[in-house]
Amino acid sequence: MTPRAGSPPAAAWARVAAVLAGVLAADQLVKALVTSSLARGEERELVLGIKLVNVRNSGVAFGGLQDAKEIVAVVIVVALIALLVYFARAGGRRWVWLPTGMLLGGALGNIVDRLREGAVIDFLKLPHWPAFNVADSAITVGVIVLVLVMERGDAARRPA
Fewer CB near the last or first residue (10 Å), C or N of the chain? Predict the structure, then answer.
């Protein structure tokens, strides 16, 4: 079966919703566990320099655009609209629902934090890397998977 471009079927929208809900639930659950067990600003060593932390990030993933709330809001809205437009047009492609759900779930997880806390709750700190969370991970992996899905679809349309 070859990937189809065009309007996504209802089943593809349902898959997006399921992935979105799973990412959002996992993100909010882990953040609730961390904030209930660590004071804000506290950190605990886990293993090999990896730390569990309770910090806030007013920027975008991995600490970019700190304290630029208006710019961050515009970037998020534009990115989500672009993603939804892309999915509405290419949602018939095989697997495009997966990164779409991951990106939407990750974005919504961080939006919930911004609305509730005024900043995103980050809790995992790797050596030489900014703190991040489940939502950031879903966004990062979602972008990689989206690029792979797009590349695969483009390769299928290229003449041999």
Answer: C
Q: Could you tell me which residue, 87 or 153, shows the higher pLDDT?
A: 87
Q: What is the DSSP letter of 52?
A: E
User: Hey, what are 159's tokens?
Assistant: 């003449």
How many whole angstroms separate alpha carbon 13 and alpha carbon 8?
7
pLDDT at 2 (0 to 100): 45
pTM over 0.70: yes
**Under a CB-based contact definition with an 8 Å cutoff, are residues 107 and 143 in contact?**
no
Q: pLDDT tens across 113-137, in order? A: 988 988 899 999 999 999 999 999 9
Catalytic residue IDs: 122, 136
| DSSP annotation of 129 | S
Is the separation of the CB atoms in 130 and 62 below 8 Å? yes
**Amino acid letter for position 104:** L
Taking the alpha carbons at both ends of the chain, their separation in whole angstroms is 18
| One-letter amino acid of 96 | V
Show the tokens assigned to 46.
């886990």
